[in-house]
C-alpha cells in the first residue's frame, strides 16, 4: 500500500507544470502572497466603514410609514403579504400620503435645501418597500414628485377612524403630534444602533495600540536600543512581572479545573493584561451610551425596549469581533513578525476574544428570546428564516466552544481541528442567512476572505518549497518501548533559502494513512549538506504510524514530505554580551541551531560568551543530534550536558574525569568528550542563570523544553530580571503550545 501511494505521489510531482515550479522557486511570490493578509485588513477597514443609520430622512420614512400602516380602514385588501408596510407600499393613496408626510416632515425639521433631504428619503422609501412591491424600485424621482404634487391637491385632514365610519381611498394628512413622537423614537433606536456600530472600531483601535507598542519595542530590541531602558528599575520590574506565568507556574503546562475532565492553558501575565483590558473595554461598550425613548412609542413596555437595545448592541459587537478572531487564528500572520509575539500568544488571544464573542452572542440570544416571549411573537413554527438561522448559529457556536476545550485539544487534536473547521463554516453560513436582509454582512465577508486568502497562502507556501520533497526517516534507539525511541527526519531541500534559528514548519508526511495531517516541528538547517533535520518523539497518532512503518522496514524508510513554512522568527539574541541557550528533552533543535548559527556569525568576537545547556534523560537524544552537536567542536561555545536518568559509576580510571569515562563507555559520540561537560541529575537553573549575569552587561536567555520545565524557568528568570536591574536580561521561549 505504501509503495503504491509513493508511486502516486511521484507521478503527481512529475506532472506538476514546470511553470508553477519556476514561479514559486523563489520565496518572493510566497512572501508576497502571505503578506496579502495585511492589505486585506486595511481594505477591510475601508469596506467596513461606518454607515450612519440615525438620519432624519430614514426616521421620517419609517415614522410616517409606522403611523400610516396602523390605519386599518384603507380601501385596499391584499392577502399576498402580511408584512407591516403592506398597505403603504402597495396602495397608491396610502403611498401618496406617505410621500406627502415625508416631505412635510423633512421641510419642518431640516433645511431640505434643493430638496436634498427629500431625495435621500426616497432612497430609504425604496429600501423599505423593496421586498413588498418591487415596482417601486423602478420608479424615477420625477414620478415621486408627481405623486407628491397629486397628494398636495387631494389630501384630506379629516378622515374616518374605523371601518364603521367608512373606507379611505384618498391621501390623508398626518399631523406633527402624531408623527414626531415616532420619529423621535426611531431617532433613539437608530442612535443606539449607530453607537453600537461605531463601538466596534474601539476593538481595532485597542489592538492597533497594543500591536504598535509591541512592534516599536520589538524594533528597538532587534536594533539593540532597548538595552538603554534597563537603566530604569521600574522597566525591569514591569518586564519581569509581565514575563511570569499567571498562576503558580502554569502556562505551557495544562492546569486542571474541576477535576481531570476540565483542563486548559493559562495565558502569561502579559497576555492576561491584554485580555483583561479587552474584556473591560467590551463590558464598557456593552453597558453604556444607551439612548432611551421616554415615550416608548415603538415597544409595548420599557423592559422590552431595554431588551431590544441590549440585544442589538451585543449582537453587533459579536459580529465586529469575527475578523479579529480569524486573524489571530492564522499561521500567515504578519503581526507575528512585527510584534515579536509567537503563535502561542496569538492563539491565546484568539481563544479569549472568541470567548468574549460567545458571551456577547449569548446575551444577544437571551435578550431577543425574552423580547420575543414578552411580545408574544415566539412560536417556533411561525418564526421567520432569519430568526431560525440565528438559533442554529448559536447552537453551532456553543458546539464549537465545547469541542475546543483543553481536554479535546490535548487528547483528540484531530477531532478538535476538523470539527473546528466544519462547525466554523456552518456558523458563518448560518450567520449570513441570519443578517442577510439586516446588514452587517461586511464582517462576515471580511472574515471569509481573510480565511480563504490564508488557506491559499498555505497552499502557495507548500508549492514554493518544492511540493513533494525527498526525506529519510531513521529510528534512533533500540528499546521496544515506543517512548524510548526517536525518529530523525532528514529532508532534502529544493528551492528554499537558508533558514533562521527558531523557525518551524508544518510537515505533511506523504503516508497513505496520515498524508492530510500537518504538525509543527522546529528544524535545523544544515546548509552545507542542503538538508533540514527534524527529530520527533513517537507517541500516538501520526508519529505512531511513522514509528510502526519504521519498525516494519528495518528502522529506516524513504518518504515524500511537504513543508508549509517557514513560520516564526529568530530571537535577537546576537546583540547580547552573554548568551545562554537552554534545551530540555526534545527541545534541542532551536537552541542547538542558534548555537551553530551564533558560532558562525560571531566568530572572532572574544567578548561574547555563549553557553549551551542540554538537559536530557539519556544519551538517545544526543545520538539523534550527533552530527549537529559535533559541528560545535573547536568553536567558542561552552556545552554542558545534564543526564537526569543516567548515574555515574565509581569504576573510573585514574587518568580520566568522571564525565569523560562516562562518555567513553556509554555514548556513541566518541569525539564529544573533548568539548562537552557531562553532569548527573537535575541542574540548578537559578545558579546557572546567575552565573551568566554580569553587571552592566546584556544577557539573552533562550529556552525550549518540556512544558513544566518551561513554566518553572519562566518564573525563575522573572525573579532574576526584577532583582538585577543593573543588567539587561532578555528571555525568549521557543516552546509553543496551543
From TrEMBL:
Signal peptide: none annotated. Pfam families: FAD_binding_8, Ferric_reduct, NAD_binding_6. It catalyses: 2 a Fe(II)-siderophore + NADP(+) + H(+) = 2 a Fe(III)-siderophore + NADPH. Gene3D superfamilies: Nucleotide-binding domain of ferredoxin-NADP reductase (FNR) module. The keyword Lyase does not apply. It is an enzyme of class 1 (oxidoreductase). The chain crosses the membrane at residues 32-50, 201-220, 272-290, 310-328, 334-354, 361-379, 385-408, 415-435. GO terms for biological process: copper ion import; intracellular iron ion homeostasis; iron ion transport. GO terms for cellular component: plasma membrane. SUPFAM superfamilies: Ferredoxin reductase-like, C-terminal NADP-linked domain (SSF52343), Riboflavin synthase domain-like (SSF63380). Its EC number is 1.16.1.9. Residues 449-573 form the FAD-binding FR-type domain. It is found in: Cell membrane. Keywords: Cell membrane, Electron transport, FAD, Flavoprotein, Glycoprotein, Heme, Ion transport, Iron, Membrane, Metal-binding, NADP, Oxidoreductase, Transmembrane, Transmembrane helix, Transport. This is ferric-chelate reductase (NADPH). It comes from Maudiozyma barnettii.
Amino acid at each position: 500500500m505504501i509503495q503504491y501511494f509513493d508511486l502516486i505521489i511521484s507521478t503527481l510531482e512529475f506532472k506538476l507544470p514546470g511553470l508553477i515550479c519556476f514561479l514559486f522557486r523563489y520565496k518572493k511570490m510566497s512572501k508576497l502572497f502571505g503578506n496579502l493578509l495585511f492589505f486585506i485588513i486595511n481594505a477591510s477597514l475601508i469596506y467596513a466603514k461606518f454607515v450612519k443609520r440615525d438620519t432624519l430622512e430614514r426616521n421620517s420614512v419609517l415614522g410616517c410609514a409606522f403611523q400610516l400602516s396602523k390605519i386599518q380602514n384603507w380601501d385596499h385588501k391584499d392577502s399576498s403579504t402580511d408584512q407591516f408596510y403592506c398597505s403603504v407600499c402597495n396602495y397608491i393613496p396610502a403611498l401618496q400620503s406617505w410621500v406627502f408626510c415625508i416631505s412635510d416632515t423633512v421641510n419642518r425639521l431640516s433645511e431640505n435645501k434643493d430638496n436634498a433631504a427629500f431625495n435621500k428619503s426616497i432612497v430609504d422609501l425604496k429600501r423599505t418597500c423593496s421586498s413588498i412591491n418591487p415596482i417601486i424600485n423602478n420608479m424615477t424621482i420625477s414620478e415621486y414628485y408627481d405623486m407628491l404634487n397629486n397628494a398636495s391637491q387631494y389630501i384630506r385632514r379629516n378622515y374616518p377612524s374605523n371601518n364603521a365610519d367608512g373606507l379611505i381611498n384618498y391621501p390623508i394628512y398626518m399631523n406633527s403630534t402624531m408623527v414626531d413622537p415616532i420619529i423621535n423614537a426611531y431617532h433613539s433606536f437608530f442612535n443606539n444602533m449607530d453607537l453600537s456600530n461605531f463601538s466596534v472600531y474601539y476593538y481595532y483601535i485597542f489592538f492597533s495600540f497594543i500591536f504598535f507598542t509591541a512592534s516599536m519595542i520589538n524594533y528597538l530590541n532587534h536594533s539593540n536600543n532597548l538595552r538603554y531602558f534597563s537603566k530604569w528599575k521600574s522597566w525591569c520590574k514591569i518586564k519581569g512581572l509581565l514575563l511570569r506565568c499567571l498562576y503558580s507556574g502554569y502556562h505551557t503546562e495544562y492546569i486542571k479545573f474541576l477535576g481531570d475532565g476540565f483542563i486548559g492553558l493559562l495565558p502569561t501575565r502579559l497576555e492576561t493584561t491584554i485580555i483583561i483590558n479587552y474584556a473591560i473595554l467590551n463590558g464598557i461598550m456593552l453597558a453604556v451610551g444607551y439612548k432611551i425613548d421616554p415615550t416608548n412609542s415603538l415597544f409595548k413596555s420599557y423592559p422590552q425596549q431595554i431588551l431590544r437595545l441590549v440585544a442589538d448592541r451585543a449582537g453587533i459587537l459579536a459580529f465586529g469581533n469575527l475578523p479579529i478572531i480569524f486573524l489571530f487564528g492564522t499561521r500567515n500572520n504578519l503581526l507575528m513578525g512585527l510584534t515579536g509575539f509567537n503563535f502561542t500568544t496569538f492563539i491565546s488571544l484568539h481563544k479569549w476574544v472568541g470567548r468574549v464573542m460567545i458571551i456577547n452572542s449569548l446575551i444577544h440570544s437571551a435578550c431577543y428570546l425574552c423580547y420575543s416571549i414578552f411580545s408574544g411573537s415566539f412560536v417556533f413554527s411561525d418564526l421567520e428564516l432569519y430568526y431560525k438561522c440565528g438559533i442554529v448559529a448559536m447552537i453551532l457556536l456553543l458546539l464549537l466552544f465545547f469541542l475546543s476545550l483543553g481536554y479535546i485539544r490535548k487528547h483528540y487534536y484531530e477531532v478538535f481541528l476538523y470539527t473546528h473547521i466544519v462547525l466554523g463554516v456552518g456558523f458563518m453560513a448560518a450567520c449570513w442567512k441570519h443578517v442577510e436582509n439586516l446588514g452587517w454582512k461586511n464582517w462576515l465577508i471580511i472574515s471569509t476572505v481573510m480565511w480563504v486568502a490564508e488557506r491559499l497562502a498555505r497552499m502557495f507556501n507548500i508549492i514554493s518549497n518544492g511540493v513533494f520533497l525527498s526525506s529519510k526517516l531513521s529510528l534512533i534507539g533500540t528499546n521496544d518501548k515506543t517512548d524510548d525511541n526517536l525518529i530523525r527526519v532528514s529532508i532534502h531541500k529544493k528551492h528554499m533559502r537558508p533558514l533562521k534559528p527558531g523557525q518551524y514548519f508544518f510537515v505533511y508526511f506523504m503516508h497513505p494513512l496520515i498524508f492530510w495531517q500537518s504538525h509543527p516541528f522546529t528544524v535545523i538547517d544544515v546548509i552545507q549538506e542542503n538538508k533540514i533535520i527534524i527529530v520527533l518523539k513517537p507517541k500516538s497518532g501520526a508519529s505512531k504510524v511513522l514509528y510502526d512503518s519504521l519498525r516494519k522496514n528495518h528502522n529506516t524508510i524513504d518518504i515524500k514530505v511537504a513543508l508549509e513554512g517557514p513560520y516564526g522568527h529568530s530571537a535577537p539574541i546576537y546583540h547580547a554580551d552573554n548568551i545562554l541557550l537552554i534545551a530540555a528533552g526534545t527541545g534541542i533543535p532551536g537552541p542547538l541551531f542558534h548555537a551553530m548559527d551564533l558560532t558562525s556569525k560571531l566568530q572572532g568576537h572574544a567578548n561574547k560568551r555563549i553557553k549551551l545547556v542540554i538537559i536530557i534523560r539519556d544519551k538517545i537524544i544526543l545520538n539523534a543530534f550527533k552530527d549537529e552537536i559535533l559541528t560545535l567542536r573547536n568553536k567558542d561555545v561552552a556545552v554542558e550536558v545534564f543526564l537526569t536518568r543516567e548515574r555515574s559509576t565509581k569504576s573510573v580510571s585514574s587518568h580520566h574525569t568522571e564525565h569523560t569515562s562516562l562518555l567513553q563507555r556509554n555514548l556513541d559520540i566518541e569525539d564529544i568528550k573533548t568539548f562537552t561537560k557531562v553532569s548527573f541529575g537535575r541542574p540548578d537553573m537559578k545558579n546557572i542563570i546567575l552565573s551568566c549575569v554580569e553587571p552592566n552587561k546584556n544577557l539573552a536567555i533562550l529556552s525550549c523544553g518540556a512544558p513544566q520545565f518551561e513554566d518553572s524557568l519562566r518564573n525563575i528568570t522573572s525573579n532574576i530580571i526584577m532583582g538585577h536591574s543593573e543588567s539587561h536580561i532578555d528571555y525568549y521561549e521557543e516552546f509553543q503550545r496551543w
